[in-house]
Amino acid sequence: MLKIAYDPIYAHPLPPGHRFPMLKYELIPGQLLHEGTITPENLFSPNILDEKSILLTHDANYWQQLRDLTLSPKDQRRTGFPLTAQLIERERRIAQGTIDGCSYAMQYGVAFNVAGGTHHAGTNWGEGFCLLNDQAIAANYLLYNAICKFILIIDLDVHQGNGTAQIFEHEPRVFTFSMHGDKNFPFRKERSDLDIPLEDGIEDEQYLSILKSTLPTLIEKAKPDFIFYLSGVDVLRSDKLGKLSLTKEGCKERDRYVLELCRFHNIPVQISMGGGYSPDIKDIVEAHCNTYRVANELYF
């Protein structure tokens, strides 16, 4: 069964200027339900992540400032969000949803989080609409509890997963792979285990060629027993914050290729949705829904 973490708080209200990006968190499950790709049974609402699990990844002082709403105005601006108790609850539920998704992925092969992909959050900072790094938290949870021995993080968001790279810089049991726009945010990049910076305007054929020449060898060499996939759709030509030129069909083929490899190698994969900022919300929702459709087709 395809299991998907979703809670209404994912789309919690924000001041003007912040609301549009949150719409997709309601519209994605709504569309999938409407078309019959999923039923309500596929959705689950995560609990609030405990502090112990947060502190496996994030610095205690940083977490306390988030929890107590004492993060400095400068650091709040860096996150892109005004700090509220509801926002912190949202972040904790998203991260718990990714942890829960790992268990479902081990049972069914694949699982999703409607939100997540908060890869700009480092050990002691938030940035770019990311406060707690959900996939890093889940990876450390798997390692700490001896559930997995070696993890591969595949980050295909248009922006480099700088927070994830920094968190696992000295962790040999996690391999971080980020394929992203070279001349895009974050402008100060961290070093992933493998970074592939892409030139502006790259289209489907070249993008997929690079991915297909890289990923099989990476999986063969790393031999992970768990994969996290960040499937941002800000690689689309229409995206206002991305500088690449993929079509929705190319983005769907990207997802199909990643999931076919995971399934071929029998490696469970948890998917967080990452970015998507096209001016027309329909483009964002359709591209994200394609990821679910492909998974449903391949696994179920």
UniProtKB/TrEMBL annotation:
Top-level taxon: Bacteria
Keywords: Hydrolase
Coiled coil: none
Matching InterPro entries: HDAC_classIV, HDACs, His_deacetylse_dom, His_deacetylse_dom_sf, Ureohydrolase_dom_sf
Residue ranges of every copy of the Histone deacetylase domain listed in the record: 24-289
Keyword Isomerase among record annotations: no
Family: Belongs to the histone deacetylase family.
PANTHER family in the cross-refs: HISTONE DEACETYLASE 12, HISTONE DEACETYLASE HDAC1-RELATED
Name used for this protein in its record: Histone deacetylase
Taxonomic source organism: Mucilaginibacter litoreus
Taxonomic lineage from the root: Bacteria, Pseudomonadati, Bacteroidota, Sphingobacteriia, Sphingobacteriales
